[in-house]
Design brief:
about 850 residues; alpha/beta; six-stranded mixed β-sheet; five-stranded parallel β-sheet; globular
Length: about 850
């Protein structure tokens, strides 16, 4: 005998004590799938036979079963379950979680059960208990289906229990093993000519008069429902779609109009409205189609889950908690959507916009409510573009996410109300539930990254009060680790340590880039304003893009300055043929903006300049006092020399930050040095070596104005001692001339070593620049020795996590995942910035 059980179900084992339920469960199910009342009794009372603990034990059984069903996992309840009142909560649990209740009954002889219990010393109850359980089970047999059990299997002997096989069966909606590719077509509503034209545009061959359709690449169609009503040729659509499904070229889900037609064809009392009357009239002229059409439409299921769960197709959409499940509630939502139960002034149902709150991982493709153009919202897309109302018939190519449509040849039916307007979902507002609390963010580079609750709270202040429009904030750059401390006299950092790190990590070739002393800037630049609004859903304040800091704030208070800088870059991109070469309308660039004072002027005025001014004045006053004391014959020892040394350090400190400051009267006074082409339409360019990035930028700079600057660099083989020495000499010359230093990166953008992800970059800064970071006297005796004991491990861990989150944000944006998924990563970078790591590193 074979017992069939759906993959997602609540299985109730029913039978008296000793009937073999636990042995059966252990043989056919995973240990974690079985919830035993005896085991739960032991959990709450330390004694599996303590009958006083039974109520508490069953509360635990129901709680565990509910959690497993909520997470989409099968659960087997191992208890006697012989009384209807014991089974009722189980059936209710299955209903609440939109899955089937399954009963497996162990109708073995009463004598066998009694004998088995006598052989178990821990079971000290009377034989009469087993007899009562057996009678109760027998009384229940005929009524199990009425109680709500969808599948009932009765095992009538010990031999049958021993010989039975259990077969797991996917639900009808479960096609996760089917990856596609698919062409998903919106509501057809009897528009056969448009359907044939769209199929041709999608590459399908349609044999005229034969309804035979095929695609040379093996692609298949999925219809989102509402094949019938309102249009001019419902019979023609039905014949074509039925043949496509029969030939395996198409799948289809049920729409509300399809379900109404089924009821009408079954002779039910259905109001002839909303185009149903046209369909019935058309079918009268083709009576041979009525019964095949009824059977076909009646067999359509509520929805499909495909491609490993990444795609869901349902007529009116489906929230995450109903996907992959089967119940009347699931079918109702899939066909009719979320409604209030009320009607508006036009007599139409008042609908709730379930997609505005959707947070599921599966992309949901649906129709049902006609919209002027395909509507992307969160991870959903509505492709009913109102063909029957004179709009368009639309298809979504999956996994390409490309929208293809054809115009209606006529207006076949007047819509009661205009096509639904664009959504008012306020995607420019962060939803606190998406970013607050402890979170685990999955990334392709570093796996699961934990964001602590306290860090998320700290990031909220910056994100909510100071950040740019979230729709434009698709990336934040990572922090960067310095090299280990150098033992060279008078130096804290030197290229030798950075090159040695990559050599230890198994990286043979690195690129050494000059580190510009400015402000880290991320620029999103679009081909034109229309492209910006089309891709980002908002008109940027900078016209064709935005320029923001590494914490998501606008780089400029002067909007005109930002607009002119972006326009310089846009013109250079166009002149270099960048848009055509990379087949894109937008680009995200990682850059350095100079001078430092352009963004840090307030920091310089309030922090750095007062230290230098006050320090120099103090030193001069102290030296004057020492000189006066010396004049009176007081021996001041080496105090004057030490003050002179301190004064020299303060002067060097002032000179160090002044070197990176100059007045900015207009865009011509700025210098922008891009160094990464992070992402363009359809691509995150972390698969390209840094040389490719710098070549792309060189082409842009060559066609731009003096505002754009190159990043000098050289490629170094870390196993070549002479090449390493040349790189160190270059660094020495750069820093001696007032440069900040350099960044050493693996030639490949992303590298994995024996210990996992390798640092994307190591910064190595010059002695005078470090004076700004650590203070005027950092290199005086004793100070440098203390700094050399700094640890970089925490900084490096932070840098890798932020790097992985930044890349993940770009990948999600490029894949057109919903904005809240991009925000999760961007917000995570900002949250990690509040971790307790020495910021001077």
């Amino acid at each position: 005998m074979k017992v069939t059980i759906p993959d997602l179900a609540l299985v109730a084992l029913i039978g008296p004590s000793g009937s073999g339920k636990s042995t059966f469960a252990a043989r056919h199910f995973l240990r974690t799938e079985v919830v035993s009342s005896d085991f739960c009794r032991g959990l709450v009372a330390d004694d599996e036979n303590d009958q006083d603990a039974t109520p508490a034990a069953f509360r635990l059984v129901h709680a565990i079963a509910g959690e497993r069903l909520r997470s989409g996992r099968l659960v087997v309840v191992d208890a006697t379950n012989v009384q209807p009142e014991d089974r009722r909560p189980l059936v209710q649990l299955a209903r609440e979680h939109n899955c089937f209740a399954v009963a497996v009954v162990f109708d073995v002889p009463e004598a066998v059960c009694i004998e088995r219990n006598r052989a178990r010393p821990e079971r000290d109850f009377h034989d009469g208990v087993v007899r009562r359980q057996h009678r109760a089970m027998r009384r229940s047999l005929r009524g199990l289906e009425r109680e709500g059990f969808r599948y009932v299997s009765v095992l009538r002997s010990v031999a049958e229990v021993d010989a039975v096989t259990v077969e797991r069966q996917p639900l009808w909606v479960d096609r996760r093993s089917d990856p596609g590719p698919f062409d998903i077509i919106g509501d057809v509503h009897g528009c056969r000519e448009e359907l044939v034209e769209l199929l041709g545009l999608l590459g399908y061959g349609v044999q005229r008069g034969a309804d035979h359709v095929e695609h040379p690449d093996g692609r298949r169609v999925i219809f989102v429902g509402d094949l019938v009503d309102r249009g001019p040729d419902t019979p023609g659509v039905l014949r074509l779609v039925m043949r496509m499904v029969e030939d395996g070229v198409a799948l289809a889900v049920a729409g509300n109009h399809d379900a109404r037609l089924v009821r009408a064809l079954k002779g039910r009392n259905v109001k002839l409205s909303h185009g149903l009357e046209r369909t019935l009239q058309q079918l009268e002229a083709d009576p041979g189609l009525r019964e095949p059409a009824r059977a076909f439409l009646d067999g359509l299921i509520s929805h499909y889950v495909l491609d490993g769960g990444r795609l869901v197709v349902a007529h009116a959409g489906l929230p995450a908690d109903l996907q992959g499940r089967s119940s009347g509630r699931v079918r109702e939502f899939a066909m009719y959507g979320d409604t209030t139960g009320e009607t508006d002034e036009l007599g139409l149902p008042v609908r709730l916009d379930w997609a505005a709150e959707y947070r599921g991982r599966s992309m949901v493709v649906y129709g049902h409510v006609a919209v002027p153009e395909a509507r992307w919202l969160n991870n959903t897309v509505n492709i009913d573009t109102g063909c029957v109302f004179g709009g368009r018939l639309t298809a979504l190519r999956y996994p390409e996410r490309e929208v293809v449509s054809v115009p209606a040849r006529a207006t076949y039916f007047d819509s009661v109300r205009p096509l639904a307007p664009p959504p008012t979902d306020r995607t420019d507002v962060l939803d606190l539930a998406d970013v607050l609390g402890k979170r685990l963010v999955e990334t392709s580079l570093a796996g699961r990254i934990a964001i602590r609750e306290e860090n998320a709270t700290a990031a909220l202040e910056v994100m909510s009060r100071f950040a740019i429009d979230p729709r434009l904030l698709v990336y934040l750059p990572p922090t960067m680790s310095p090299a280990e401390a150098s033992a060279r006299p008078g130096l804290l950092e030197h290229p030798e340590e950075a090159l040695a790190y990559f050599a230890r990590s198994g990286v043979r070739r690195v690129v050494c880039e000059e580190k510009h002393m400015g402000s880290r800037a991320v620029l999103v630049v679009c081909r034109d304003e229309a492209a910006a609004e089309r891709r980002f859903g908002v008109a940027p304040p900078g016209g064709v893009g935005v320029c923001h800091t590494r914490t998501g704030r606008s780089m400029f208070e002067d909007g005109d300055l930002e607009r002119r800088l972006l326009d310089h870059l846009r013109c250079a991109l166009a002149a270099a043929g960048f848009w055509e070469r990379l087949e894109t309308d937008w680009v995200c660039l990682d850059c350095e903006l100079m001078p430092w004072s352009a963004k840090a002027q307030e920091l310089i005025t309030r922090q750095y300049a007062p230290v230098a001014s006050a320090g120099l004045v103090s030193v001069e006053l102290a030296r004057a006092a020492v000189g006066a004391a010396t004049g009176r014959g007081v021996d001041m020892g080496e105090l004057d020399a030490r003050l002179s040394e301190r004064g020299g350090a303060l002067a060097a400190y002032r000179e160090a930050y002044r070197r990176y400051c100059w007045p900015v009267g207009g865009v011509e006074d700025l210098r922008l040095a891009p160094f990464h082409v992070l992402a363009t339409e359809g691509h995150v360019h972390t698969d390209q070596q840094h040389g490719w990035h710098l070549d792309q930028i060189a082409a842009i700079v060559a066609h731009g104005s003096p505002v754009l600057a190159l990043t000098p660099h050289r490629v170094v083989d870390v196993e070549d001692a002479a090449a390493c020495q040349e790189a160190a000499d270059w660094w020495t010359a750069l820093t001696a001339a007032g440069g900040e230093g350099m960044v050493v990166k693996p030639l490949d953008f992303v590298v994995r070593g024996s210990r996992g992800l390798v640092q994307p970059g190591i910064k190595c800064r010059g002695a005078e620049y470090l004076r700004i970071i650590y203070g005027p006297e950092y290199d005086l005796p004793g100070n440098l020795e203390r700094l050399r004991r700094r640890g970089v491990s925490a900084k490096r861990s932070l840098a890798l996590r932020e790097f992985a989150l930044g890349v993940e944000a770009l990948e999600r944006f490029v894949k057109r995942e919903p904005l809240h998924r991009v925000h999760e990563c961007v917000f995570g970078v900002l949250a990690l910035e509040s971790e307790p790591v020495d910021p001077a590193l």
